[in-house]
Specification:
alpha+beta; Lipocalin-like domain-containing protein; 141 residues; single chain; globular; eight-stranded antiparallel β-barrel; Lipocalin
Length: 141
């Protein structure tokens, strides 16, 4: 009997964990809640070298003035010091990709390698030099 009780408890825990990432019929998914709660401030930009290591962007020493606020109406406010812009955002159902579309045109798609209540790591698509093979931008609340 203990084995049946343990199996039922594990099944219930697994179902709860799986359901926590799905969209609730009455509201946004947990990932959307993470994205749209608070303001995300850029903490660091890193580039991936050809050997797989990560190095900080030497030109991004004072970047805490860059902030993003994603809203539930699918708008995003980007602030860079004293200037700001309102763009639109869209994510895949599993929040593995996030696309930001400036109203002036030219959408940019990012891979989302981490999205929690306190950390967001975005990976811009392509456009790297022969020296770097990747980039990741880390934001925090």
């Amino acid at each position: 009997m203990n084995a049946k009780l343990l199996t039922a408890a594990l099944a219930a825990a697994l179902l709860t964990a799986l359901a926590s990432c799905k969209k609730d019929a009455n509201g946004p998914s947990s990932k959307e809640k993470y994205l749209t709660t608070g303001t995300w401030t850029l903490q660091k930009i890193e580039y991936q070298t050809q050997d797989g290591g990560w190095v900080p962007d030497p030109h991004a020493a004072d970047m805490d003035h860059i902030a993003l606020s994603f809203h539930t109406d699918k708008s995003v406010t980007a602030v860079d010091g004293s200037s700001s812009a309102i763009d639109l955002w869209e994510a895949t159902d599993d929040f593995s990709q996030l696309t930001v579309s400036p109203k002036s045109g030219g959408a940019v798609t990012y891979g989302v390698s981490e999205l929690t209540g306190s950390t967001m790591v975005l990976v811009p698509a392509g456009g790297y030099s022969s020296y770097y093979k990747g980039e990741r931008d880390t934001y925090a609340h």
